[in-house]
Amino acid sequence: MERTRDRDRAALPEPMRREVRLLGDILGEIIRDSGGPGLLADVERLRHAVIDARHGDRDAGDEIATLVASWSLEQAEQVARAFAVYFHLANLAEEHQRIRNLRERDTGQEPVRESLAAAVAEISHDAGPEHLRELLASLRVHLVLTAHPTEARRRAVVAALRRISGLLDVLDDQRAAAADHAEARRELHEQIDLLWRTSQLRVKAMDPIDEVRTVMTAFDETLFRVVPAVYRELDRAVAETAGPGSPAPAFLRFGSWVGADRDGNPFVTAQVTRETATIQAEHVLRALENTTTRIGRALTLHAATTPPSAGLRRALAAAHAAHPELLAEIEARSPQEPYRTYLLFAAQRINATRVRHADLAYPGPAEFLADLRTVQESLTAAGAVQQAHGELQHLIWQAETFGFHLAGLEVRQHSEVHARALAELRPAGLPGSEYSAGPPGSEHSGGPPGAEPAAPLSAPTEEVLATFRAVAWVQDRYGVDACRRYVVSFTRSAADIAAVHELARYATAGGRPPVLDVVPLFESAADLANAPDVLTGMLALPEVAERLAASGRELEAMLGYSDSAKELGPASATLRLFDTQARLAAWATANGVRLTLFHGRGGALGRGGGPAGRAVLAQAPGSVNGSFKVTEQGEVIFARYGQPAIAKRHLEQVGSAVLLASSARIAEPTAAAARTYSDVAARIDEAACAAFRRLVEADGFAGWFARISPLGEIGGLRIGSRPAKRGLRPAGSAPGAAGAASGAASGAASGGGPANGTAPAMDLTDLRAIPWVFAWSQTRMNLPGWFGLGSGLAAVADAEGADVLRRAYRDWPLFGVLLENAEMSLAKTDRLIGARYLALGGRADLTEMVLAEYDRTRRLVLTVTGHDRLLANRHVLSRAVSLRDPYVDALSYLQLRALAALRDTDPEDDERERLERLLLLTVNGVAAGLQNTG
Q1: How far apart (Å, rounded) are the C-alpha atoms in residues 646 and 653?
Q2: Mind listing the pLDDT tens digit for each residue in 269-320?
Q3: Can you give the pTM of this predicted structure?
Q4: One of 142, 566, 599, 828 is an active-site residue; which one?
């Protein structure tokens, strides 16, 4: 173990080693200066102890536990903070090294692996330029940002790290003067001191608008600037491979659930959704206005050297007629510069759109794009091709991608909420009920149109109706694309889709309802199995038929990775989701529907996360077909979109994978492999699911899980506005027991902790997948990422031998991704430390079940992959895990101290508060060390 760690340390690139040493040394100085030499000595004592334990003396764990128990809670808290801050700085150094690696790989001699240029070259070589252009014409990558509470860092911490990142850039720039380097080092001390003194924990819970503004940071600082750079790469690659042609298509679209996803979140209201749409529009219109102004000022082409076209002259004349004073003012500053004049006029119109000056405002983005293309076409006709297809093309791409709304808001609500609302509305006979699903006289038919309700509607039902009115308001103000998708959680039949349209009619009281594309979300095993039948039922709905006719028979269905994995286990969920994709693709072909599958993937492996490009290539044949839509959740947003270089790389990886997955060269072998190994998949599914269900359905499992993990306390991190549990009960049931049980569990998950020194009673049925995965990652077992897979592999190996599994790993992309993700999760698992957490539950049988499955899974994953150790073929990741593990161990021992005290004693209120704070600090630090939460 010592030799492995020394080898990994030696293999670190010199620039990264230098930055880690610099940041660590500065942090050490700050810890010593602020906390005294005793604090630094304790930090170093623990650091050396956990490293020594990794060198082979794993029995040293008891000595480390004794060491951390010897400190006062105040000292333990300071030590935990030191390790947590160190991880933030180490992550930053890793990020910088990744950016260096990306630059070094892009030599220009050949396309970078997994880039758009590589995909274009491959497809053009295999199928020819015409097939490439056909694929590009249908290419669409739709990324939906969500507020799922998995970003454990405060915005203040993220902002401090961003400033530190900028200073590292200066130090890394060999062109900077010595004085610049000296000043950057001084500022680095200042910013790291600020980071050390900034609380790692939120004092105030986030509300939905906080989440909206957090996501806006990614747009303002990265996405708006990076998107045209991605298109430019594609444009260049196509021109070099297939010859010049039209500009590359703007294939990216963004959606957002932030401020619109109300499934189980009572804090997302109709008013919040309206405010969210307003904030988004404000940001994108400001960005478009600033960019248009900048480009317009630079386009100083004289009318004599670059004469305007007839179209541009007509546009200028119309502008003069409508707004003579404004045009005169602009022309006074831009005499005989028609391009500059017209773009500055367009910038003024964007400004008017933002401030809602109706006389000057654009009706929508289509008119703005028409103006930009008028300028572009005139430049091209005049021979100024460089000006036509340079910065102006970037602006066109930005407007095409973001429109005037930035990201389409997607409302999400649980089908059960709709059922309850209709149970109130239908008997009331309000306008809209004449459209209800049941025939006259049935229990689902409405009363007389316009009849007064028998009683006032409940607040939840009023809020449901207000949501549809908010959607209509957003569409009226910002356009239909600003908010037309409505996702129904736990869709079980087409009636759940019909319910949404019925509620929309109730909300508008007989008026025109908003335009809605209702998206079924299939999450449970039963719902996944029933998905094609639900879509068939949807085709019979008049509202769906109308939308299909208007959209060219486009339809969308969402697959939930998180809840299916929590119900079935990771292996079975992966295999059944693949099967569902294949059946839905076949259904779409049979019904002449252009189906887009929306993948609700989490950041963590236990919720469908993992490398995005490989995941796309592993999709069922025919299920991508040029279009891919996926959620980007929590910490993933900042990991992928916090740095422009990394954001560009990620968007290229996804785009290139979608292109390749849509080509026959990839799709046909994948389909053949899926057929060949279908029996193997079925056997793995059956055994893996049985093993997983046997664990989670074991008597007392929920209480045991609550005792061994910080599940009941992680809500205290206040990392999101959403409660940890949905708290829904079946419509028509009594509100007492179910609601009370759910409320108690939800309260525990919101950070209150147990009141009597024992873990709270837990019901896992309604527990969201994020706290489930988050809590298991804190125990160092990472169980949601691998449990059950070993039993599934063993069922095949015992019956047919391991060779068939090795062939499946080699030939079938899905099976390869399944094993690679499990291997990654196993590599982040620590059996010895995990066993200490498991022991807190006092259930030797459950502990043995977990550890035996871990041993079985690890052994068989290595057997099938042919690796001699986990991640043997992924050197960079393996090195990162190996170097981080000891420092994560330090936080785990501190967390175990706090957790054991909270579970096994009844501390006084003051001590309980200190213990919970220590626990949450370690949770924050472990999340940073493992680089994932939920």
Answers
A1: 10
A2: 999 999 999 999 999 999 999 999 999 999 999 999 999 999 999 999 999 9
A3: 0.89
A4: 566
